[in-house]
Write a structure and sequence with these properties.
This is Ferric uptake regulation protein. Homodimer. Its cofactor is Zn(2+). It is a single chain. The chain is α+β, with helices and mostly antiparallel strands and 144 residues long. It has two domains: 3-84, Arc Repressor Mutant, subunit A (Orthogonal Bundle); 94-143, 2-Layer Sandwich (Dna Ligase, domain 1). It has helices at 3-17, 23-33, 41-48, 57-69, 111-123, 140-143; strands spanning 73-76, 81-84, 94-99, 105-108, 132-137. β3 and β4 (105-108) form a beta hairpin. α1 (3-17) crosses α2 (23-33), α2 (23-33) crosses α4 (57-69) and α3 packs across α4 (57-69). The two termini are 27 Å apart.
Length: 144
Amino acid sequence: MNVDALVSKAKRMCDSKGARFTPIREKVFRLLASTKSGVGAYDLLEQLKVTETSAKPATVYRALDFLAEQGFIHKIESTNAFMLCHHFDSIHPVQLLICDQCGHVDELHSSVLSHELSELASQSGFSVSSQTIEAHGICKRCQS
């Protein structure tokens, strides 16, 4: 799906929830949509400053918080980076394959892994409310 289509879908979802998809939030969304890897908040800030010269770290963090609350992005905890979720119109299990050489991130959705983790957690008396599994390694392109 192209970036404009993703933005339109995000705007429709925000409208249906009564959430404001402000111009700054849209710009951060577009920056994330234009990459296949995780992006750190300060890298986003530098990119945002090209058009928003007065942007501060708080500007980016507020936009990221909003986008995360709407389910539009995933935080990659192990690298403290963010990536756009192209499947934000549904709740789904998330597994991320992170290339340690080029930074490319693939998003998988295995309900089998999700179910297995929830079952194992349940056996330990733990109730899983959300899960993101991160796997690090080398992508196909970097292996060649």
